[in-house]
Design goal:
Blueprint (H helix, E strand, L loop, with lengths): L1 H18 L8 E4 L10 E4 L17 E2 L7 E2 L9 E4 L3 E2 L4 E8 L5 E7 L2 E6 L10 E2 L1 E6 L7 E8 L8 E9 L6 E10 L4 E6 L6 E7 L2 E8 L8 E6 L7 E10 L9 E3 L24 E12 L2 E9 L9 E7 L5 E3 L12 E8 L15 E7 L5 E7 L6 E2 L14 E8 L4 E10 L2 E9 L6 E6 L14 E7 L2 E10 L5 E6 L4 E8 L7 E6 L8 E7 L8 E2 L1 E2 L3 E8 L2 E8 L7 E7 L2 E3 L15 E8 L5 E6 L2 E6 L4 E4 L2 E4 L7 E8 L2 E6 L4 E6 L9 E6 L3 E11 L7
Parallel strand pairs: 3-10, 21-39
Antiparallel strand pairs: 1-13, 2-5, 4-13, 5-12, 6-12, 7-11, 7-13, 8-9, 8-12, 14-19, 15-18, 15-20, 16-17, 16-19, 21-22, 22-23, 23-24, 25-26, 26-27, 27-28, 29-30, 30-31, 31-32, 33-34, 34-35, 35-36, 37-38, 38-40, 38-41, 41-42, 43-54, 44-54, 45-50, 45-54, 46-47, 46-53, 47-48, 48-49, 50-51, 51-52
The structure holds beta-D-fructofuranose.
Beta-D-fructofuranose binds next to strand 21, strand 25, strand 29 and strand 37.
Length: about 725
């Protein structure tokens, strides 16, 4: 009996010891690519360079998601290099081979497992189109069936051109089953509401999300889908497909990802109660409800409304998936966002462009006497071409069936801006083209907006030319309102400009490279076409970064442009449009006052968040006149005649011995105007909600305030 008990106890004990989980053998690293060279790996061709890359290579988008400092990156000397990289032989001793992989998607780009001279497993990168991401993501193979066999790993880059490279890192053998992926995971919806709410995790690997209607591919986007708790919910407007079968297909999802499951359909916006009230939401600067914006596009006045389209990534906090978002306003100040109007298609993502009203229906797209609104955009695929879309109601837009209207001239040509040229009764398009390694503007003409002829090239071969990079704008302005003295202005994306003459074919500048704005974060501005009172109103992309928000970036306030004569010749002035006055809620007037160092702060009693300040000063013997607007320092140096905003300095001459200054301050920064608009300083700055204090002082002497007005402003957003 005792013996039996002993045996049972022994059995139980041994059983117990067996039932504790068997410890998986440690992972075996096949290669981590941390060395200066490839060691025992053999490389052929030139794609893989002399050794592992230390991250991003010259000319490449930011590479991320690799382990340690080094990785295999076949972008060595660009996309056109090819080659192979092969490991020495090793024994398969674990059930799985796991690795990180990124780069292009192609059968010419592969990570291969070779057993007995045969390719038994193969993987490639995720990107097949313009855009995408250089992030590496985990992947793995089940190799149990090859246990004990000898194998090699080979990395192949036989691809040239866009996405002609592959990135690989951290190849290891492991017994722990890596999370597996579901390829082409799908979810079907019968569309009953306006929105699908898409969960976004900033920085997650981008997944290719394809939207199909009744089985037909309509649009694809690269989306940082949240597998678990999202950072925010993107709005996918599906109202166009009401009552239809919609499928969302994701190229690759973790088996336990909640991304597709968590998508809800509704007419309401999630977190609607905080919409437009977010702590970093500009209150009188346009920004999209959700997602990223860059350039203003298609700025036009049509049927009683200003239309503002914009480069929009509805599904990311950063640039990508370029759509044309759309907003309208009756007064340039209060905007209503209407949803995305141009979606990426098989010709590529929708890059920047412009709009005109075709009053004489030269295009033939008008209906029942209604002049059509025509949009010009760049379809930034391969090739990159110029295309048009039209509308007769300002709400629905149809892409022209015979697009493109201008074929690719050279890769990356983009940003068509179209105007009507009254003297020659034709349309003129300015287009940014890199031509003979220079930044040029190509001028095209047309009588019907569909057929375009090259008329001339500006800055192509002129020495010192080539400053005109991206997003041209082109218009004529009178000097000091004198209609007999007009000049044509050609603007680049950074707002540098040239002034000259234009005969309908060729622009001849008398002066170039004049500076536009003098601040920071102002780019790709566009003026509105067809403004009824003939004003030239410009709006810029304002690079206001809003970390932690479900949107990012914004637009500047609308600016009225004029030309004024200076000692150096005519120059452009930037001033806030008068419509902004509608934001004023309470005004504080200060009469003529002297301002001495040590005086009490005249603005002491005021507490406000959104503010407009307008003042005129005689500098007297003051060395500096200084405003502190909610921590944004606005300092005028009377001797240097220089204005500094948040530490950023620019020349700002006194005008008739006076300093005239206007300051607009929103949650996202300040826009400061001096020298009657000759000096415009936009400065992104994230203000603190709780700080509502304003100060004004003179330093080093006494200044005279001739007039000073301070307007407390209301938000321009209409919230429920
Ligand atoms: C300028 C720009 C344009 C292009 C667009 C793409 O910011 O690079 O040239 O059309 O952005 O979003």
């Amino acid at each position: 009996m005792k013996l039996i008990l002993t045996v049972i106890t022994a059995l139980l004990l041994s059983d117990l010891s067996f039932s504790s989980p068997a410890r998986a053998a440690d992972d075996l690293v096949v290669a981590d690519f941390e060395g200066a060279d490839y060691g025992t790996w053999k490389s052929t061709g030139d794609a893989f360079g002399p050794g592992p890359a230390r991250g991003t290579l010259p000319g490449q988008m930011h590479v991320e998601g690799f382990h340690g400092k080094g990785l295999v990156n076949s972008f060595f000397k660009g996309d056109d290099t090819t080659g192979t990289l092969t490991s020495p032989e090793f024994r398969i001793e674990r059930k799985y081979i796991a690795f990180l992989i990124g780069g292009g998607k192609s059968d010419k780009l592969a990570l291969q497992l070779i057993v007995d001279g045969k390719i038994v497993r193969s993987a490639t990168g995720p990107n097949e189109r313009h855009g995408g991401s250089e992030a590496l993501a985990p992947d793995s193979w089940d190799v149990n069936e090859f246990a004990g066999r000898t194998a090699k790993i080979r990395i192949v880059d036989d691809a040239k051109g866009s996405w002609g490279h592959i990135n690989v890192d951290h190849i290891k053998q492991s017994d722990v089953k890596p999370k597996s992926f579901v390829e082409d995971a799908e979810r079907q919806f019968l569309v009953t509401s306006q929105y699908l709410h898409i969960p976004i995790k900033n920085g997650a690997p981008k997944r290719v999300v394809t939207l199909l209607i009744d089985g037909q591919r309509v649009v694809r986007n690269d989306i940082e889908l949240a597998d678990a708790e999202p950072d925010w919910w993107a709005l996918m407007d599906v109202s166009l497909w009401r009552d239809k079968q919609l499928t969302l297909r994701v190229d690759k999802l973790h088996e336990d990802s909640a991304a597709l499951r968590s998508i809800e359909q509704s007419n309401e916006i999630k977190d609607a109660e905080s919409l437009y009230r977010e702590s970093l939401r500009g209150q009188f600067h346009f920004s999209p409800k959700r997602g990223w914006n860059n350039d203003p596009n298609g700025c036009v006045f049509y049927n009683g409304e200003y239309h503002l389209f914009f480069q929009h990534n509805p599904y990311g906090w950063s640039w990508g998936n370029m759509h044309w978002g759309h907003a309208v306003s009756k007064d340039l100040v209060h905007w209503e966002e209407l949803g995305d109007k141009l979606l990426p298609d098989e010709m590529g993502p929708m890059f920047s462009g412009s709009a005109v009203v075709d009053w004489k229906n030269t295009s033939g797209f008008g209906k029942n006497g209604n002049p059509p609104l025509i949009l010009f955009y760049t379809a930034a695929g391969n090739p990159t071409v110029q295309a048009i879309a039209y509308s007769t109601d300002g709400r629905t837009f149809t892409k022209y069936g015979n697009n493109p209207v201008v074929k690719e001239i050279s890769g990356g040509n983009r940003d068509p801006k179209v105007i009507w040229h009254e003297p020659t009764q034709q349309w003129v398009m300015t287009l940014y083209v890199e031509w003979k390694k220079r930044h040029t503007i190509h001028f095209f003409t047309s009588t019907n907006l569909r057929d375009w002829k090259l008329a001339s090239i500006s800055n192509g071969d002129t020495p010192g030319g080539g400053f005109l990079f991206e997003c041209p704008d082109f218009f004529e302005l009178p000097v000091d309102g004198d209609l007999t003295r007009k000049k044509w202005a050609l603007l680049a994306a950074n707002s540098n400009y040239a002034l000259g003459i234009f005969d309908g074919q060729k622009f001849i500048p008398d002066v170039t490279r004049l500076p536009g704005h003098r601040g920071k974060g102002f780019y790709a501005a566009q003026s509105f076409s067809d403004v009824p009172d003939g004003r030239r109103v410009l709006i810029g992309w304002w690079q206001t970064e809003t970390k932690g928000m479900s949107f990012n970036q914004s637009m500047t306030i609308p600016l009225e442009l004029r030309l004024t004569q200076t000692d150096d010749g005519p120059r452009m002035t930037f001033n806030p449009v008068k419509e902004l006055e509608t934001l004023r809620t309470k005004t504080h007037h200060f009469g003529a006052l002297t301002l001495k160092p040590g005086d009490m702060n005249p603005l002491d009693s005021i507490r406000t968040e959104l503010v407009e300040v307008r003042g005129e000063f005689d500098p007297g013997d003051a060395r500096e006149i200084v405003f502190n607007i909610r921590d944004i320092m606005v300092e005028y140096d009377t001797r240097k005649q220089e204005l500094s905003v948040a530490g950023h300095r620019a020349p700002a001459s006194l005008r008739d011995g006076k300093l005239r200054i206007t300051i607009y301050c929103d949650r996202t920064g300040a826009e400061v105007f001096a020298s009657d608009g000759l000096c415009y300083i936009p400065m992104p700055y994230n203000t603190k909600l709780e700080n509502k204090r304003l100060f004004l002082e003179s330093r080093g002497g006494t200044a005279k305030i001739n007039s000073l007005e301070l307007h407390e402003l209301s938000s321009a957003w209409k919230v429920k």
